[in-house]
Design goal:
alpha+beta; single chain
């Protein structure tokens, strides 16, 4: 499915583009690292499973399918992170944002730039009114990204998801279109 053009540059030397099946290798290379997944609910069985997920979910043309973009280095087009929407519900104009980043790129502000670019795109191009995030309560890096992007903490979802066979608490963050525009969103 084609998406309206995203900003050409997310941060100096980086851009967003639609994810493709050939990105599975680079994505899996860092998703299998313990430091990356320890504060997430990712539980992948291998690169082939991730490639199948890309094909089944992110390349789908069904209504309300998840949307994922590759954050790539402009010099090589190599995937260094992803950002997009899970749980898209156009009828209610909301979606859940999700993102990840290879550890070699942590601490540079890339996740925040990519998150904000997709939030703005979701509101202006998709007509979303609400974008929310479910973040594991121990994921301090992701919490910082959300807060820097203007998301507000709405509460704790106790034992919301199983994380490697353990029920874990997640924090619910949300941002409304009016939080960015200052206007009341039209519904």
């Amino acid at each position: 499915m084609d998406h309206p053009i995203l900003p050409a540059t997310v941060a100096e030397h980086y851009a967003l583009r639609p994810i493709c099946a050939t990105d599975a290798t680079a994505w899996y290379d860092y998703l299998r690292e313990p430091d990356v997944v320890q504060h997430t609910s990712w539980n992948l069985g291998g690169e082939a499973q991730l490639e199948a997920q890309i094909r089944a979910q992110y390349l789908s043309t069904v209504v309300d399918h998840p949307i994922r973009f590759a954050l790539v280095a402009l010099s090589s087009d190599k995937l260094v992170g992803t950002v997009g929407f899970n749980g898209v519900v156009q009828a209610h104009r909301h979606a859940e944002i999700a993102y990840d980043l290879a550890p070699g790129y942590w601490g540079q502000g890339l996740a925040g730039h990519a998150c904000m670019a997709v939030v703005q795109w979701g509101i202006s191009c998709m007509g979303l009114n609400r974008i929310h995030a479910h973040v594991l309560d121990t994921n301090t890096r992701s919490i910082r990204v959300l807060e820097k992007c203007g998301f507000q903490l709405e509460g704790t979802l106790r034992q919301y998801r199983m994380v490697r066979d353990e029920p874990r608490d997640f924090l619910l963050y949300a941002l409304l279109a009016e939080d960015l525009t200052g206007d009341s969103a039209k519904g």
